[in-house]
Amino acid sequence: VTPAGSPWGNHTIPEGEEISLSFGPMESAFRREGDELWIRTSVGDAPEAAPEGADWARWALPPGDGGRLHLAPALPDRLVVVKPQVSFQLIPGASARVYVRVPVHVVVRHGGADGSLLTEFPSMRMSDTWWGDLEDGALGYWLSTHARRALTPDLVEPHLAICTLNLSNRSRETLPVEKIALRVSHLSIFASGEGLWCDEVQVTWSGGEDSAIEMSGEVPVEAPGARLLVPPRHPVDRGFRARTFARIRGLPGFAGMA
Amino acid sequence: MMNGGWRQEGETVGQEVPDTVAVAVVEVADTLSQGPLAILFRTLEGGMSPGELLGNATFLGVLGQILGALLVLVLGFPLLFAVGRGVRRWVGSRYSPQRGLVAGKVIYYVGGVILLLTVLGQLQIRLGPLLGAAGIVGVAIGFASQTSVSNVISGLFLVAEQPFRVDDIIQVGTTTGRVLSIDMLSVKLRTFDNRFIRIPNETIIKSEVVTLTRFPIRRMDLMVGVAYREDMVRVRKVLLDVARNNPKILMEPEPAVLFEKYGASSVDFRFVAWTTRENWLAALNELADGVKARLDSEGIEIPFPHVSLYTGSQSLPLQMRVVTDLDPSGGTEAASEGAPEPG
């Protein structure tokens, strides 16, 4: 059974039945057998010939449980390094409004929104990357994107959260925007129709390594009437400073060949 | 304490050491003879009945002192161990296992000395003569245990320099393992086949130590050889594509394919890619599997030296055959077999 409408929210899995949900390229199946819940995830054309039970995960539920699940989107648990397919440069004093679509994770809870966490899986598997230098830094996800300057309705997809970035260059140098470190764990998710939105982010570069980052906490004007769906994983009261544009130091490519 | 009357005229200075030891022993014996233990034994040797002993104030006072000392020992050391363990866990979880280990040891040693001094004080044993004797004995033991002293000093350097920490994976010589503890005399490792290895601190200080888990990301090097007829640019693209399709391989630092050499039977490339230290082994295996599978599917040959073995009648000279289309029988081949003829 494939339920119609948004996949987010509560679902009840009847005894002995299986429901299928798609989150972008990620296919998922939920099945209840007695007091057990079975969940399977697979990307695109999963091997149908896989032996029964080989790729399922099982959870034992309390006796007489109704098989009620709650599915919610969540932004990735690490920073996302956004690589525009065509990099651009911000000349001194310039600003740019950029839209980045970030694949969300699917959080599965038992019972309801406050129930026990069963599992969390990405709607799209992104490659790992490193943000920092060779001695210190952070593991992140790599996201190659168009970094669009304008939105069209066809860009709205249920498994992609649209992050609106306002980039400003207040230095006297030209800022090459080759990669953007997006710290999504500080962002909320809003729902507007079928689409998911993050709160607007202001990134201001005044020279040097770090940039000033401010999370607005509010949905962008492009999504009027959007309601808060998920609060940030790691809330921050106000803005903070962090490296957002700088290239990795001390290496890339052949520099590390010694 | 060197008494002029103890040295005879004409004695060498070297004889001072046994004299000093004798003095220290006498002082220790004197100290012990005035303590509650000696008083207790003397009282018991006096032949008093149990009733008389219980009425003897000196006996009861001494007995109280000894019981007090025992109480300090019985309660103090378990408490000390409990506090040491607690501090080790707290510091270990809050800062690092290495700091927890050091903090726990400081608690053990300092607390142990305090407890010992308390017990000696309770037993009215003067420390001066004991420390003097201990110092002299220490010098003697020091000469006999230079290796141990060297290990202790090396251990101090290890703690101060911190070339590695508890839980790091290190390689010393041919031994690789996870650091279990860094102690006064040695470093304890657990190898990956679950053996326990003790390496003296002095050996560590003198050896080249590789800390495999010092930095968060590591590079993998894979040597890939392809046939001379292959397009090198295409090979590079295919290999980089393998890396980009493996989520464990970091997109940055970027993977690279570098020309290594024109080998005897292949063009050799060094394929380098980065991953996190936790994923290193899994990523290396996945990369090797992926490269082989992809080169096979792309029809790119991985050449390898061929060895042919001949025995007995098979080890005859190489046979050659001359082919001609002037064969009168209508065939396209025939002529002579065997070694080539000149001309």
Mean pLDDT of chain A: 84
What spatial order of strands do you see in the largest sheet of chain B? 4-3-2-1-5
Distance between the termini of chain B: 111 Å
| Percent of sequence in beta strands of chain A | over 45%
Termini gap of chain A: 57 Å
Uncertain spans of chain B? 1-15, 330-343
Average pLDDT of chain B: 80
Structural class of chain B: alpha+beta
The number of distinct helices of chain B, counting runs of at least 4 residues, comes to 10
Oligomer: heterodimer
Structural features:
heterodimer; A: 8-stranded mixed β-sheet; 22 strands; about 50% strand; B: about 350 residues; 5-stranded antiparallel β-sheet; 3-stranded antiparallel β-sheet; 10 helices; 10 strands; disordered N terminus
Q: Quick gist of this model?
A:
Chain A is an all-beta fold.
Note down, in words, how this protein is organized.
The complex is a heterodimer of chains A (258) and B (343). Chain A has 258 residues and is an all-beta fold. Chain A has no helices and 22 strands. Chain A has strands at residues 9-12, 18-23, 26-33, 36-43, 56-60, 68-74, 79-84, 88-90, 95-103, 105-110, 117-122, 127-132, 137-145, 160-169, 175-177, 180-182, 189-192, 195-198, 201-205, 210-215, 227-230, 240-243. In chain A, strands 9, 14, 17, 18, 19, 20, 21 and 22 form an 8-stranded mixed β-sheet that branches. In chain A, strands 1-6-10-11 form a 4-stranded antiparallel β-sheet, with no helix packed on it. The radius of gyration of chain A is 21 Å and the shape is elongated. The longest helix of chain B has 38 residues, at 57-94. In chain B, strands 4-3-2-1-5 form a 5-stranded antiparallel β-sheet. A 3-stranded antiparallel β-sheet of chain B has the order 6-8-7, with helices on one face. A two-stranded antiparallel sheet of chain B has the order 9-10. In chain B, helix 2 (36-45) packs antiparallel against helix 4. Chain B is of the alpha+beta class. Chain A binds chain B through residues 81, 83, 125-131, 134-137, 139, 142, 179, 248, 251-254, 256-257, and chain B through 215-217, 219, 244, 246-254, 256, 258, 272, 274-276, 279.
